[in-house]
Every structure is written in structure tokens, then in C-alpha cells.
């Protein structure tokens, strides 16, 4: 049985941006998030070590970071990508065996966040980092690791 998807397009210009463009961006974000979650739960995370994820999972994790942090500008994107690369190698399942830090951004002891989400859900991890960094304005949580982003 074939299914057809019917897309209705309405263009309403508001403040220089069309409603169609906004809807497309929203749909693209939702699709990326759904795909990243699916990949993470179906073999995208290959271990708890730095970088132990499939190339698809790493690419999707990177895209999630770019999508979220681009709201604060290119410097925020550069900083967030640097942190994720250094901390987890873009593996949302990374866990530091000595400290217990987990996820893309290597969260450590933040009781307001779900420990399951921090080790399995890349969307949750990127949103938590956005929230913890106060929209990329507070970056001190990730300093002191012997590197500078």
C-alpha cells in the first residue's frame, strides 16, 4: 500500500521571513532530532569510549550542536563543537570511567538532568548543554580540562 504525503504550502510574509521558511526549518530540526535519536538507539553508539560511535551518529551529533548553538552566533558554534570534540569525540554514549562524566559535553553530577538521557539521547544532551551554558553565554562549566576552546 503506497501512501502519499500531501504538503500544503501557504506563504505569509512576517517581519521579512516567510511562514513557509519557518515551518521548513522547524520540520528539518524535528527530522534531524528524530533521526539522531533513532540512530543512537539502534547501534549508533558503539561503546562508552571517546569517539566510539558510528560516523553517522557523529555527523548527526555535530549537526545537532550546530543547529542549537547557531542561535547564539558562529563563535558559540565554534566553542560548542570544540568542547564536544574534546570531551566525547561526538559520541553521545561516552562515559569517563574515572569521573563518571557522561554524554557529548561530559556532564558531571548535574542532578537536574536525567542520567539516562545524558548517556543515550544526543538531543537531550545538546539541549541540556544549551540550558546549562545559558544560551552559550556561560562557558565556565567546561573550563579547567587542560584545554582551551
Features:
149 residues, mainly alpha, two-stranded antiparallel ribbon, 5 helices
Give a verbal description of the structure:
The protein is mostly helical and 149 residues long. It has helices at 19-44, 55-69, 74-88, 115-120, 122-132, and strands at residues 13-14, 17-18. The protein contains five helices and two strands; from the N terminus they run E-E-H-H-H-H-H. 49% of the residues lie in helices and 3% in strands. Helix 2 packs antiparallel against helix 3 (74-88). The chain has one domain (19-142). Strands 1-2 form a two-stranded antiparallel sheet.
Strand line-up across the major sheet = 1-2
Number of strands: 2
Helix/strand structural class? mainly alpha
Broad shape = globular
Largest sheet: 2 strands, antiparallel
Can you tell me the residue ranges where pLDDT is under 50 for at least 5 consecutive residues?
Answer: 1-16, 19-24
Which radius of gyration do the C-alpha atoms yield? 17 Å
User: What is the number of independent domains?
Assistant: 1
Strand content of the residues, in percent? under 5%
Secondary structure layout plus pairing:
Blueprint: E1 13-14, E2 17-18, H1 19-44, H2 55-69, H3 74-88, H4 115-120, H5 122-132
Helix pairs in contact: 1-2, 2-3, 2-5
Short summary:
The protein has 149 residues and is mostly helical.
